[in-house]
Amino acid sequence: MKSIGKVAVIPNLTKRNASGTTFSVIDRLHRLGMNVMMSAKYSDIFANKRITFFKGVDELYSAADMILTIGGDGTIIHAAYHASYHNKPLLGVNTGRLGFAAELETDELDMLSRLKDGSYTIEKRMLLKIVHKGENGEREFRAMNDAVISRGSLSRLIDIDVSLAADNGYICSYRADGLILSTPTGSSAYSLAAGGPVVEPTMKCILMTPVCSHSLFARPVVFSHHSRLAVNASCDDDTEVFLTIDGAVTVTIKKSDTIIISESDAETEFIKLKDRTFYKVLNDKFTEKGRQL
């Protein structure tokens, strides 16, 4: 792979040890002869570190060769959204609890030298395209992990109907607390906690996992990545139902609304520095050792 010269550093300074780790990362990148770029909102904190600051997110991501996040999985997911629009690869340094999507822990920063000599690989992962069709028109979103349909805190169970968007072919119905539509990357997140299958993140498919379904026979379903799913949801008492994208964007949906789930044309690229399998990561992160991170 080509040598990396310009790195956009995206820290979440609310995380434990994130500030100190960010200073260490910046120093190491400088010693490797790389140019470091950051959002202008950090200009006071890192004023003396030879950093190029950008006022706009798009300008920052466009100028960089890669995006390096410092924080937890939420930090990576947020950065992945912007990186997908600029076709820039991501590398995560974990200062969160689990950090499942992160490549490096804080004691592995020496491996950043591989960015300079090109000894890394790129792993591509699919994203979801979510289209919300309501009375005010259409809104389109991208998700790295999942799109979740859920009830409000005072709502009753949701009635959810799922069909094929292309020909309105009925698939199934659930009466449940919610429904998770996830990517393979998201299979190890909320979907896993709700009883969904674990899927290798480099695969291409769409996972559907009901949340606390009031049924003896409700099961998760795995669809081809070519599928286009149409979802309608409502509550008996006509109270609020929500669509949440990657835990960050929430939209109120009504009975007449339709949500279309399909594979996005865009992808997320992850930089891999280690020679380890997905199953090694899975075991490390979900053992007692992983829970103590």
Question: What does the model show?
Answer:
- It is a single chain.
- The chain has 293 residues and is α/β, with parallel strands linked by helices.
- The protein contains seven helices and 18 strands.
- The radius of gyration is 20 Å and the shape is elongated.
How many domain modules? 2
> What's the count of strands?
18
CATH architecture of the largest domain: Sandwich
How do the SSEs run, as a string of H and E?
EHEEHEHEEHEEEEEEHEEEEEEHH
Radius of gyration: 20 Å
| Percent of sequence in beta strands | 35-45%
- Overall geometry comes to elongated
Walk me through the topology:
Elements: E1 6-11, H1 18-31, E2 35-39, E3 51-54, H2 57-63, E4 66-71, H3 73-86, E5 90-94, E6 104-105, H4 113-117, E7 121-134, E8 137-143, E9 146-151, E10 158-164, E11 169-176, E12 178-182, H5 190-193, E13 205-211, E14 221-224, E15 229-235, E16 241-245, E17 249-253, E18 258-272, H6 278-285, H7 288-291
Parallel strand pairs: 1-2, 1-4, 2-3, 4-5, 5-6
Antiparallel strand pairs: 7-8, 7-18, 9-12, 9-16, 10-11, 10-15, 12-13, 13-14, 15-18, 16-17
Keywords:
about 290 residues, 2 domains, Tumour Suppressor Smad4, elongated, Rossmann fold, 7 helices, six-stranded parallel beta sheet, alpha/beta, six-stranded antiparallel beta sheet, about 40% strand
Give a quick rundown of the structure.
The chain has 293 residues and is of the alpha/beta class. The longest helix is centred in the N-terminal third of the chain and has 14 residues.
